[in-house]
């Protein structure tokens, strides 16, 4: 079992600062922007992006949360499907540019479930996607707009993301 560090604390800090600048530049400001973090670690990353955007632009960007968990559909197939279990959006997303934030993008099924939920809750003008790690292996036509790092992986490799808020330190590792 081999663990290799892909991003250390400084690299994560720089990647989030760059993504904050990219979000501001791509959207020509953030007055119509809402960040939405996906369940555990995406929420902390979204909050950090909002802090940085505030430092750079002097503007508060609302941060919402989506809790997406795997749901086993026993009646049809023995496969797990991501399902939105809960959402907490502080403002209406109608007409807004929503930036979804997650730690790792893999097949794209979680993001698809997130997009369905957002579209159900009021029609956003646009949905963009920010991820700390894109590990490849997409099964849907989904690509991130903002990427911390592209990490080519095999199917069996697992990316471990830890964040200081709950895991004591910031780190991204790959387990072979
Ligand atoms: P997807 O739905 O794209 O297959 O998987 C993305 C979701 O599963 C994300 O919410 C992400 O947190 C989690 N995930 C998928 N693969 C990995 C991985 O290798 N490492 C970590 N930490 N999370 C993963
Ligand atoms: Mg996740």
Overview of this structure, please?
This protein has 176 residues and is of the alpha/beta class. The chain contains 4 helices and 9 strands. Helix 3 links the parallel strand 5 and strand 6. Helix 1 (9-26) packs across helix 2 (39-57). It is globular and about 45 Å long. The relative contact order is 0.21. Residues 38, 82, 102-110, 135, 158-161 line the site of guanosine-5'-monophosphate.
Q: Which terms would index this structure?
A:
alpha/beta; 36% strand; 176 residues; three-stranded antiparallel sheet; 9 strands; binds guanosine-5'-monophosphate; binds magnesium ion; six-stranded mixed sheet; single chain
How many E-type strands?
9
Can you give the mean pLDDT?
95
Please indicate the percent range of residues in DSSP E strands (runs of 2 or more): 35-45%
Q: Which consecutive residue ranges, at least 5 long each, have pLDDT under 50?
A: none
Report helical residue fraction.
Answer: 25-40%
Summed up, the helix count is: 4
Biggest sheet descriptor: 6 strands, mixed
Q: Tell me the span between the first and last alpha carbons.
A: 6 Å
Bound ligands, each once: guanosine-5'-monophosphate, magnesium ion
The rounded Rg comes to 16 Å
> Reading side by side through the largest sheet, how are the strands ordered?
4-3-2-5-6-7
How would you summarize the topology of this molecule?
Blueprint: E1 3-7, H1 9-26, E2 33-38, H2 39-57, E3 63-72, E4 80-88, E5 97-105, H3 109-120, E6 126-134, E7 146-150, E8 158-162, H4 164-167, E9 171-175
Parallel strand pairs: 2-3, 2-5, 5-6, 6-7
Antiparallel strand pairs: 1-9, 3-4, 8-9
Helix pairs in contact: 1-2
Bound molecules: guanosine-5'-monophosphate and magnesium ion.
The site of guanosine-5'-monophosphate has 16 residues, from strand 5, helix 3 and strand 8.
């Amino acid at each position: 079992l081999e663990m290799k560090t892909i991003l250390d604390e400084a690299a994560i800090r720089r990647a989030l600062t760059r993504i904050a600048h990219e979000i501001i530049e791509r959207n020509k400001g953030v007055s119509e922007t809402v960040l939405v973090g996906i369940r555990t670690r995406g929420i902390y990353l979204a909050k950090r992006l909002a802090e940085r955007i505030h430092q750079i632009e002097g503007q508060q960007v609302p941060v919402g949360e989506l809790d997406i968990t795997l749901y086993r559909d026993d009646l049809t197939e023995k496969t797990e499907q991501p399902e939105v279990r809960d959402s907490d959006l502080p403002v209406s997303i109608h007409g807004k540019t929503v930036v979804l934030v997650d730690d790792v993008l893999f097949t794209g099924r979680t993001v698809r479930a997130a997009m369905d939920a957002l579209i159900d809750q009021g029609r956003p003008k646009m949905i963009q996607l920010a991820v700390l790690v894109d590990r490849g292996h997409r099964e849907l036509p989904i690509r991130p707009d903002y990427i911390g790092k592209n990490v080519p992986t095999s199917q069996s490799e697992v990316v471990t993301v830890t964040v200081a808020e709950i895991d004591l330190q910031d780190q991204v590792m790959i387990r072979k």
